[in-house]
Design goal:
Elements (H helix, E strand, L loop, with lengths): L5 H12 L4 H8 L3 H15 L19 H14 E5 L4 E8 L3 H14 L4 E6 L3 E8 L2 H4 L5 H10 L4 E5 L2 E6 L3 H11 L4
Antiparallel strand pairs: 1-2, 2-4, 3-4, 5-6
Helix pairs in contact: 1-2, 1-3, 2-3, 4-5, 4-8
Length: 191
């Protein structure tokens, strides 16, 4: 492993503090990007600066969500979707009939509008298309396991049930025809 001079490190930190991206600093100084990132991390720690990863999550960034796309996506998620939580990210999946290509495109567009930086894609299944997106922030926007969500359903008069897996609650379901129709009145139909 090559060692770098203190002056090279100081020059890198000067450029980074001036807003130059890691990649450009690494190329300009001829050092690996990982080294530049490490120097920045150590510099922040030494100055007591807490790093906060930039986010486009409306809830975390305390800004308004694009309501039309959010409402549409909420309806899709409640009807034919789910969120799977993993240690570092959450997966939002919505299943669409493969014959309705407009629905598939609209679902993907809604995901990208609500959280533009989230990775989004499609996966063909037997007769359907899974539109899937990965980010740490889907649970910020769709707190389906909490009292906020079920309280809103109760206030709207929508019947819901708790689904269990291995004896533990894991999801909220709105499946009765009348309740789905009532939900559609509030968030709009899925097609």
């Amino acid at each position: 492993m090559a060692s770098h001079t203190a002056s090279k490190r100081a020059e890198a930190l000067f450029l980074l503090r001036d807003g130059v991206p890691h990649r450009e600093v690494a190329e300009q100084l001829g050092v690996p990007r990982g080294t530049v990132g490490w120097w920045r991390s150590e510099d922040r720690r030494a100055r007591g600066e807490e790093y906060r990863r930039p986010t486009d999550c409306p809830r975390c960034a305390e800004r308004a969500v694009e309501r039309t796309s959010y409402s549409y996506l909420l309806g899709l998620c409640l009807g034919d979707g789910h969120i799977i939580s993993k240690p570092c990210q959450h997966h939002l999946s919505v299943y669409c009939d493969a014959r309705y290509t407009g629905l598939v495109a609209a679902a993907e567009d809604a995901m990208r509008t609500v959280l533009p930086s989230a990775a989004t894609g499609r996966r063909s299944r037997n007769g359907c298309v899974e539109v899937k997106s990965y980010t740490q922030h889907w649970k910020c926007l769709f707190p389906q396991h909490g009292a906020l969500f079920t309280g809103a359903l109760d206030a709207l008069g929508i019947t819901w049930t708790v689904l269990h897996r291995d004896g533990k609650p894991y999801n909220i379901s709105v499946a009765r025809k009348a309740s789905v129709a009532l939900l559609d009145l509030h968030v709009g139909p899925k097609y």
